[in-house]
Every structure is written in structure tokens, then in C-alpha cells.
């Protein structure tokens, strides 16, 4: 757990928040901050997750991406089961410090998604008028870097 002595500074003025050089991440009411993860080499969006303060501290300190799983209610290090550890090469924040952007190198099988694909964003939403019908998805990344059944011992999900 996060040591009570470790915390991020509270943002000061809007000017300090947007133009200052002190990292003051703004966590939401649940204590989380969104994190966009991209491939450090190609810029491809790999995944989206949330971090709590502990995950953010650990990511900074270890150089490996840690997140907070809302569905499991716990901290997790990406790749702890699959070996697809995300090495953090860069960590940016947006103008009002309420979103993070991690540029990473993927270890293991070279895939960030638990389905075995490099990216979690492997389907595209059909943008045409659905005319009352269900909007469809089209797979744009079909090749898998690993078998989830072999790596996790179960089907993805």
C-alpha cells in the first residue's frame, strides 16, 4: 500500500497547474487518473487503464507500468501474468494534469492486450448511419502475438 508519507503535491493556481514545473496529478473522486498507453517507437495506441497514486508512484520508481484494476479492485503490474511487461520510456500529463500518457516498450510476446493482440484497440466502429440497427465492429488487427489460453490458462475475458 501507499505509504502515508508519499503523496503528490496539491495543485496550486490554474497558472501553476497549466504552466508550472511541479507534477501535481489530479485524481478523480475515486482516486484514479486515466492513463493512455502508446508504443514508444511507433506511437500506436496500445491500451487505456487507470492508475491510483500507488500505481503511479510504482510506475515512476520501477520504470514498469502499474495500474489499478477497477473490476478486481486492486493494483496490478502490467505483464505480471503474461510476461508482457510495459517498460515506461516516457510519462506525460495533459494541460490540467488529469490524464496521463505513457510511452512504453512491450516485453514478453510484444502484446499489450490480454486477447493476445499488440493493441487493445483491434476493432473499428462502423461510422455509417446504422438506421436503427446495431452498430457493427470490424476487426482491424487480427493477428495474435500469443495464445491467451496458453499464457493465462483460460480464455480471455
Can I get a quick summary?
With 157 residues, this protein is an alpha+beta fold. It has helices spanning 14-19, 53-62, 148-152, and strands spanning 33-39, 45-51, 66-69, 74-77, 86-93, 100-106, 123-125, 137-139.
Q: What is the number of beta strands?
A: 8
β-strand percent reads 25-35%
Radius of gyration: 18 Å
Which superfamily, in CATH terms, is the homologous superfamily of the domain at 14-115? Phosphoribosyl-AMP cyclohydrolase
* Biggest beta sheet summary: 4 strands, mixed
Number of helices: 3
Strand arrangement, largest sheet? 2-1-6-5
Q: Which key features would you list for this structure?
A:
13% helix; alpha+beta; 157 residues; four-stranded mixed sheet; Ubiquitin-like (UB roll); globular; two-stranded antiparallel sheet
Q: In words, what does this structure look like?
A:
The chain has 157 residues and is of the alpha+beta class. It contains 3 helices and 8 strands. The strands form 3 sheets. The chain has a 4-stranded mixed sheet with strand order 2-1-6-5, with helices on one face. A two-stranded antiparallel sheet has the order 3-4. A two-stranded antiparallel ribbon has the order 7-8. A hairpin with a 4-residue loop joins strand 3 and strand 4. The radius of gyration is 18 Å and the shape is globular. The mean pLDDT is 91.
Amino acid at each position: 500500500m501507499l505509504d502515508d508519507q508519499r503523496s503528490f503535491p496539491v495543485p496550486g493556481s490554474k497558472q501553476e497547474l497549466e504552466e508550472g514545473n511541479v507534477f501535481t496529478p489530479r485524481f478523480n473522486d475515486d482516486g484514479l487518473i486515466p492513463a493512455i498507453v502508446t508504443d514508444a517507437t511507433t506511437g500506436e495506441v496500445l491500451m487505456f487503464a487507470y492508475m491510483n497514486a500507488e500505481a503511479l508512484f510504482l510506475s515512476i520508481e520501477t520504470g514498469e507500468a502499474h495500474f489499478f484494476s477497477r473490476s478486481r479492485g486492486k493494483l496490478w503490474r502490467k505483464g505480471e501474468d503474461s510476461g508482457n511487461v510495459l517498460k515506461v520510456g516516457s510519462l506525460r500529463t495533459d494541460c490540467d494534469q488529469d490524464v496521463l500518457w505513457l510511452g512504453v516498450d512491450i516485453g514478453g510476446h510484444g502484446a499489450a492486450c490480454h486477447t493476445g493482440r499488440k493493441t487493445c484497440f483491434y476493432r473499428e466502429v462502423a461510422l455509417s448511419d446504422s438506421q436503427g440497427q446495431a452498430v457493427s465492429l470490424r476487426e482491424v488487427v487480427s493477428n495474435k502475438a500469443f495464445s491467451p489460453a496458453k499464457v493465462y490458462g483460460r480464455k480471455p475475458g
